[in-house]
Amino acid sequence: MGGLLVALNAGKTSLSTNQKVIEIAGNNIANVNTPGYSRQKAILEPYPSLNFNGFMIGQGVKVGDIVREHDAFLSSQIQEKSASYGEADAKTFPLAELESLFGITDGGLSTEIDNFFDSWQELTANPGGQTERDIVIQRGELLADSFHTAVSELDGVKRNIDESLLSKIDGINNNLQRVADLNTRISAIEASGQSANTFRDERDQLLNELSSSIGIQSLEDKEGNIMIQLPGGQPLVQKGTALTLEGEVVADELQLQVNSNGTTVPVDTSTLGGAFKGLLEVRDQLIPDLEGQLDKLAYTLVTEVNALHSTGTDLNGSTGNLFFDAPPSPAPPADIWDGAANAIAVALSSPDEVAAGQTSAPGDNTIALQIAELGNAKIVDGTDTLVGAYSRISAQVGLEAGQNELATAANEDTMTQLQNLRDGKVGVSLEEEMINLIQYQKGFEASAKFLSTVDEMMDTILTIKR
Amino acid sequence: MKTTQTTVYRSLQNQLFKMQNSMLDLRMSAATGKRINKPSDDPSAIRPVLNARSQVQKSDRYLRTMGNAADRLDILDSHLDQIGNLLINAQETLIAAGNGSQGPDDLVNYSNAMGHIKDELFALANSNVDGKYIFAGFAEDTKPFEEADFLTTYHGDSGQMELEIAPGERITANLTGDELFQGAGGGINIFQLLDDIQNDLAVGDSPTALSRLDDLKNATEQVSRKRSQMGNVAARVENAQGHMEDIKIDMQEVQSLYEDADIIEVITSLNQQQMAFEAALNVTSQVSELSILKYL
Fold it and tell me: With a cut of 0.90, is the ipTM above it?
């Protein structure tokens, strides 16, 4: 009878174990669409055997551990690629704004430059005409407006980037704090020998998000704590403590810094990664470069037109007049053309003041002829026309946006591939779970059958004596 | 490796997004008729497109300037024609006066006739078209010759009105009164000449008057030389006009080549993409039908 009781016990362990495994399959199925969920599986192991008259006899089965499927290589790949994808993806919006700003449709800056010189050419045919003179001044004002619009829209793009950075900082700090909290929990749970499966999934997911936004590097220690640092080496999370990222507006521009116990460390494109790096690169490198080129364009235009205009005489006989206000003269080491695009303005107020000729004679068109020719002349750096220089700016933006489009698409493909690989390795497959269900259901049924057999056997034994 | 449901849906979704994006681009091309709608569509085409666009605009302006130049030259030509006729008239008068059979009264009449011719020339020299004196150089608001001193003094300036009719190509579209009428720069002072002849005839000295006939012929020559000079300029403008129109068409072609979409190609690609999109949608809808759950 003793053997039967042992068998009864073994049957019981089998019933509950198969039930447990089905429970796990159910949980896997429930999480089939949960992002970052790793398939869990039961590690089954036999109960230690007992010595019975010199034979080792098994005592049934138990769930030794529930572990999650995991592939450290894939996880780190995904984390790494998240940073590149985040960087390229973040640039998409500001670059699209810049593209529309430096577009090539009619009515852009290049059209205004053409129109301005066209009005001078028109003036050459009738240098004394009030209408023609008025048109020259108006075209000059429209051209100045175009420059102002371009500069203020560039500023607008910068401000949008600042807004977007600022709005992300809270989320990032929250994520950093959550990683620190999870570190504490995971190390505590795993110190007791259990697996903190869902907490690890959650932490992996947070790391991917952080990598995508600020391009972190992470390292796991023996106790299961993840340490996070920026690509530049600035630590952000150590065990259970997280530092915070802060934004401070200095001179109308958002400066980012890491606050570590009261001391702040500034961070920029060289120390950040991911979306922040992408946005800051546009804000701190591309846009200033474009502004510089716009300034240079405006500066060249203003100085060349003024140089010719001041040699002429207006209808009132006064000479040495500037057509545009003289550009600001910034103190070195700033480039001489700094701020010219924003400062460009027509200096004349009355059509009489346009110096179309060398003399004040109304039929004199010599200066107008020379200024009209500036439109064709290679005056920017001596190598390019004004419209040519504008097309260089536009092409630069176009190239940058085109490259970024390619980079975004490529990174997106890679991310999809990696996520598919990850799903293939550690994701939940409904087919697999269904087959497992069948398998363990059969196991459960067999255990039940076994138990009823043992029961019958016990009945048989009990009916020996009537 | 297993393929999970998430993998299938993720891949299909990405594919659908991509197709939608490329269809959007194609639709934009079809709707605008342009191959380049934003700089990144083809950064290398921006310079040729903008350049061609300015060239087209400049060609338009050159054509209008040439129209203006042609008008000026026409007006000039008709005035020079009248001046030439006047001087031939003066020659005839002088020859008639100097044939030796005229009495003193006749000579006074001829002298008066010569005075009229001089006055007419004076009026022509002060011709004003559209509020501008055409022989005053740049000083088009100044009467170039005054009654009091027109024999020797010119109130205009020596400005040569140049117009640009093609990049770097300028023509002169005016004549200054001092050069044409007063012989500035080594010519004959026609006013003075006519005045001298008039005075000689008035005092009955027909031989002296007749001795100036060669000068008068030279003066006529001086005017017709200027006229043919201006005629050449006008011919040049006319040639340049045809040439500039060709350039404009060329430039429009260049612009279109870089900027305009090949509509047939766009529509074909769009149809192709739509077919592929429909196929992808079909596949997506069938994924859910094929499931292990059906067989359990």
Answer: no
Alpha-carbon gap: A165 to the closest alpha carbon of chain B (Å) = 25
Rounded mean pLDDT, B91-119: 88
Strands (E), chain B: 128-129, 132-133, 162-166, 169-172
Q: Which region among A278-282, B237-241, B289-293 has the lowest average model confidence (pLDDT)?
A: B289-293
Structural tokens at position A162: 């600042």
DSSP A199-219: HHHHHHHHHHHHHHHH--EEE
**Residues of chain A with pLDDT > 70: what percent?**
100
The pLDDT assigned to A306 comes to 94
Cα dist from B227 to A62, B221, B233, whole Å: 119, 10, 10
Q: Best residue in B8, B32, B61, B132 to probe A by mutation, most A CBs within 10 Å?
A: B61
Contact across the interface for A419 and B10, Cβ inside 8 Å: yes
CA distance A113 to B45: 19
Give burial (CB, 10 Å; 0-12/13-18/19+) of B193. Answer: buried
Which of the 8 DSSP states describes residue A326? P
Taking alpha carbons only, the member of A92, A98, A96 closest to residue A287 is A98
Using an 8 Å CB-CB cutoff, list chain A residues near B51: 387-388, 391
Give the strand pairing for A61-68 and A217-220: unpaired
List CB contacts of B239: < 8 A, sequence separation 6 or more.
Answer: none
pLDDT by residue (tens digit) across A216-258? 999 999 989 999 999 888 899 998 999 999 998 888 888 999 9
| Alpha carbons B124 and B187: distance in angstroms, whole number | 19
Average pLDDT value for residue range A385-410: 93
Q: Do A32 and B6 touch (CB under 8 A)?
A: yes
Q: By three-state DSSP, how is residue B147 classified? A: coil
Q: Considering the entire predicted model, what is its pTM? A: 0.85
Is the CB of B137 inside 8 Å of chain A's CB atoms?
Answer: yes
Task: Round to whole Å and give the CA distance between A179 and A187.
Answer: 12
A1 has a pLDDT exceeding 70: no
Q: What is the pLDDT of residues A268-290, one digit of tens each?
A: 888 899 999 999 999 999 999 99
Q: Radius of gyration (Cα) for chain A, nearest Å?
A: 38
Nearest to A368 by CA among A110, A173, A127: A127
